[in-house]
């Protein structure tokens, strides 16, 4: 398990290493990521500013409580809601960026496939296939955000448990969606992909969590997306035991 987790994380580093191979095509991958990142950051900032008033409005039943417990409860609600929104933003960022930047990331995928060698698929998945995948990713993000919000209300351990669950769920979703292009291009059915994910669950999780941690760095999401697409292509080939 630990070896596969580490191997997944190292695959992201190999994706960053692709900047040395073709910096031009990787640079193009920054454009859609920067646009989507700016929109989502604006949304989170707006939520953070309006959240205290929103929580007060949503919890009128706490108005009669002792001041300490009322403030503590509303602070907990605000933290949980913002954490759930952040989880949703992580997943939404990846889905929207892959949709908006489909032509850019297709070029990165093709360049990586060509550079690595072996059997290179002639065509990748269609644009609409990517859109469907992005919508599924957003739905999964909503479910994950709801799960994180629910766990966050557990007494004592809620905050830590929500953070860990959010990292695991988001990392898992990110890795699957990023690797989908390389797997779809090889004609794998849904059942085939699920079986592949089960066999390599820890490697996928290591890659996804490492990607998510890079997203937490200021502007890290923008800088990481091209490397994540390149690394996910290598990860898919590794899972399929291709050279």
Task: Summarize the structure in words.
Helix content is 82%, strand content 0%. The chain has helices at residues 2-17, 23-28, 30-58, 67-100, 102-116, 127-152, 158-184, 190-199, 201-216, 220-239. The protein has one domain. It contains 10 helices and no strands. With 243 residues, it is mainly α. This is EI24 domain-containing protein. The chain crosses the membrane at residues 24-55, 75-101, 204-229. Its main location: membrane. It is a multi-pass membrane protein.
Report, as a whole number of angstroms, the end-to-end distance.
22 Å
Structural class category: mainly alpha
- Spell out the helices and strands N to C: HHHHHHHHHH
Query: Unreliable segments (pLDDT under 50, ≥5 consecutive)?
Result: none
What is the domain tally? 1
What helical percentage do the residues reach?
over 70%
| Strand element count | 0
Mean pLDDT: 81
List the topology elements.
Layout: H1 2-17, H2 23-28, H3 30-58, H4 67-100, H5 102-116, H6 127-152, H7 158-184, H8 190-199, H9 201-216, H10 220-239
Helix pairs in contact: 1-9, 1-10, 3-4, 3-10, 4-6, 4-7, 5-10, 6-7, 7-9, 7-10, 9-10
Summarize the structure.
The protein has 243 residues and is mainly alpha-helical. Helices cover 82% and strands 0% of the residues.
Features of this protein?
243 residues
């Amino acid at each position: 398990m630990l070896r596969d987790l580490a191997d997944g994380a190292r695959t992201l580093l190999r994706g960053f290493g692709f900047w040395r191979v073709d910096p031009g095509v990787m640079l193009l991958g920054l454009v859609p990521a920067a646009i989507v990142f700016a929109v989502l950051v604006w949304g989170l900032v707006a939520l953070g500013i309006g959240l205290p008033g929103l929580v007060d409005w949503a919890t009128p039943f706490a108005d009669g409580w002792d001041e300490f417990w009322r403030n503590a409860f509303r602070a907990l609600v605000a933290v949980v809601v913002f954490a759930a929104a952040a989880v949703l933003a992580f997943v939404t960022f990846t889905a929207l960026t892959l949709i908006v930047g489909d032509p850019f990331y297709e070029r990165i995928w093709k360049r990586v496939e060509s550079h690595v060698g072996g059997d290179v698929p002639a065509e990748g998945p269609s644009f609409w296939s990517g859109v469907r995948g992005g919508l599924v990713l957003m739905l999964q993000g909503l479910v994950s955000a709801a799960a994180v919000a629910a766990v966050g209300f557990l007494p004592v351990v809620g905050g830590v448990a929500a953070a860990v669950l959010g990292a695991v769920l988001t990392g898992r979703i990110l890795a699957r969606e990023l690797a989908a292009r390389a797997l779809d291009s090889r004609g794998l059915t849904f059942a085939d992909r699920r079986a592949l994910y089960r066999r390599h669950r820890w490697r996928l999780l290591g890659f996804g969590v490492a990607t998510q941690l890079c997203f937490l760095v200021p502007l890290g999401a923008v800088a990481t997306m091209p490397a994540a697409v390149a690394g996910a292509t290598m990860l898919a080939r590794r899972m399929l035991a291709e050279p």
